[in-house]
Amino acid sequence: MSVRILSSLLLAGLLLPAQAAEEYDLVVYGGTAGGVMTAVAGAREGLSVVLLEPRDHVGGMVTGGLSWSDIGKEEVIGGLALEFAWRVGNKYKMRHYMPRGPRVWAFEPKVAEAVMREMLKEAGVKVLFRHRLKEKGGVVKEGTRVERIVMENGASFAAKIFADCTYEGDLMAQAGISYTWGREGVDEYGESLAGVRERTPYHQFVVDIRPYDENGRLLPLVSDQPRGEPGSADRKVQAYNFRVIISDDPDNQVPFPKPPDYDPRRY
């Protein structure tokens, strides 16, 4: 009897219909700063929008430790980026006169995320955390068109427009979209400043740091390969690093334990 009951339950489970897809005008995958602003912009234009974030926070690097914005010429910044800086300034209760509003370009991660969450809520964007694209079979296509995407938790989303706003481009890759990485050479599009640069006018320094260990071996992740001919293409990506907020106030510190596999040679 127990075997028959178990068999019936298994058969019933196999016959259950697939989870119906939620439908939106715009599905944004990735809660980076770009993803947040894409979702807000779409919602303000009257689209129904859902923002899917694989982890627990929105804002990407802007709310994850990169708290000093590299802005270049402030005069050219406008739109949602300027609105964000203006809202951050209001959070800090900046009252002195500024021609373009109380904007702030250096901020705490928690303040930046609070502002982004407010912008999403005001625009009516539905935000779902812990929604990660399935590694295989996560994109369902009809011909060249993406019909829906499926998450690891089984949730499914259909839309007229899908925007991959992650840093890794998983949705883009699964959708079969062509892409490139690295630096294009000067000849690719006729850009005089493209490709490998021999020297740049700013932010290129001679660093007095020994790249070898005590045995004369290169430290981990340090390359001794030649930079390449100026103007040539390469297939390299930008180096990764950690940007963290650390306090020297004991009452404001949150200790982080040393990982069991920590190797000081790598840092």
Could you please describe the fold and organization of this structure?
The chain has 267 residues and is of the alpha/beta class. The chain folds into two domains: 22-67 and 108-174, FAD/NAD(P)-binding domain (3-Layer(bba) Sandwich), CATH 3.50.50.60; 184-267, no CATH class. It is built from six helices and six strands; from the N terminus they run αβαβααββββαα. It has a six-stranded mixed beta sheet with strand order 3-2-1-6-5-4. It is globular. It starts with a helix and ends in a 78-residue tail after the last helix.
Give the secondary structure arrangement, pairings included:
Blueprint: H1 2-15, E1 22-29, H2 33-44, E2 49-53, H3 79-91, H4 109-123, E3 126-129, E4 139-142, E5 145-150, E6 156-164, H5 170-174, H6 186-189
Parallel strand pairs: 1-2, 1-6, 2-3
Antiparallel strand pairs: 4-5, 5-6
Brief write-up:
This protein is an alpha/beta fold. It is 24% helix and 13% strand.
List the total number of helices: 6
Helix/strand/pairing category: alpha/beta
CATH superfamily name of the largest domain? Answer: FAD/NAD(P)-binding domain
Which residues form runs of ≥5 with pLDDT under 50? 5-16
What is the topology, as strand order, of the major beta sheet? 3-2-1-6-5-4
List keywords for this structure.
267 residues, alpha/beta, 24% helix, globular
